[in-house]
Amino acid sequence: MTTTGAIAEPGARGAPGGPWWWARRRSMVLDVALALVAALECAVEGVGFAGDAGLPSAAGALIGLVAGASLVLRRRCPIAVVLVSIAVTPAEMGILLSVVALYTLAASEVPRRLTAALAGASVLGTLVVTFVRFDRNIAHDTNQMDLWLVLIFSVLMAVGLTAPPVLLGMYVGARRRLVESLRERADGLERELSLLAERAEERAVWARNEERTRIAREMHDVVAHRVSLMVVHAAALQATVAKDPEKAAKNAALVGDMGRQALMELREMLGVLRSSADGGAGEDSRAVADSRRLAEVAAQASARVAAVPPPPEEAAGDGGPRLDGIEALVGQSQAAGMAVELSVVGEERAYAPKVESTAYRVVQEALTNVHKHAPGAKAVVRLAHREGEVALQVENGPSDGGAGAGLPSGGNGLVGMRERVAALGGVFVSGATDAGGFRVSAVIPDRGRAPAAGPALPAAG
Q1: Model-level pTM?
Q2: Mean of the per-residue pLDDT values for the chain?
Q3: What is the tens place of the pLDDT at every residue in 401-450?
Q4: Range in 147-156, 201-210, 234-243, 332-341 with the lowest mean pLDDT
Q5: Which of 41, 367, 414, 441 sits CB 3.0–4.6 Å from 393 for a disulfide?
């Protein structure tokens, strides 16, 4: 608890705090030393005052000791100490007390009007006491001095004892407040920089996770469909071979096992890419281990699918698949034994590369899901060219109940399609149909423009 008007003197950073109202121990030592000196001065001057007033010397010394000792409260109650110094001015004691008290008052947080009033009272008291003292001395002197000279000397004496400590205290107080303001501003800037650093770190983590997710999605779209077709082909070969059934069945089973193993390793690689590093970016050893592990898994997967010819859209190497490759994509599924129908509505036009690539990947993933989850089902692919957008829909009927190829599913196919479409400002909807099948619909605006219609397409007649 601090009295109003006390000096706001926070201790230096790292300095030990002082007892009671002192912020630092050295401040306490200084005040106690000043109070002792002031008490000794006032006690000596109090003895002289007691002799002139006809009082016991002990009484004058005691008054001086109490008045001087009040200086120890200058930081706690600067107004009270100044009032004490003014009160003992008629006794011609407490010069050090008055000077230090006025300095402390001017340097404190006391309102300037109150400081000016107390400083004026001190000037007036000192002026009167000095004038009376010189006038008394002149009365006993044979050399008479002009009264105006006595008054001028008294004014100079009063102002000289009051103005310097007040001005110095005002300067020190203003400087202290400026330093505190600069320190608060520095602390504020430090907090802002810390907050900006935390936000930058969060953005870096977010960007890293987004990049990992994007890589996982790209690898899923590029590799999963091709490997799925390889497994479907192997299953069909195993079921329909006529010549040398035993040998063909063994070869087909080997191809199927290789494809399944490649897909399992691909899922493991996607899991590493999608998961965020718990230890942060500073764990370099873990990052290196993950990179080596990904390289090994990717090399194994590439070796197992190297014998399968790449789809036409990937061989082009022009930055990604395009919409004109959807017909070949449908032909691959038809070659694998799936009944797929392609319906194109509207005048064909060129879209932004990302739009065409996303539309192609959505159809690719949807057909892959039909291979995995609805073997033998009929599928319909609808593509509609609209003004400023492209709409597509892949719908399949219920499975015919035949044995599937045993393909593993990581559960990220629909999530990846939704993320791709949403990144371009499009709309993606998926869900089961009333007939027991499944439908995937998407509307993708061209060059980021908002879609003009919902994702549903009219059923083909």
Answers
A1: 0.45
A2: 76
A3: 654 555 555 556 788 788 889 888 899 999 888 888 899 999 999 864 44
A4: 234-243
A5: 441
Model confidence over 273-322: pLDDT tens digits? 666 444 444 444 454 455 455 445 444 444 444 444 444 444 334 456 88
Q: Which CATH superfamily is domain 319-461 in?
A: Histidine kinase-like ATPase, C-terminal domain (3.30.565.10)
Angle at 90 between CA 85 and CA 94, to 5 degrees: 35
Residue 363 to residue 441: CA distance in whole angstroms:
10
> Would you state the structure tokens that stand for residue 460, as one six-digit string?
């083909």
What are the residue boundaries of the structural domains of the chain, listed by start? Answer: 25-197, 319-461
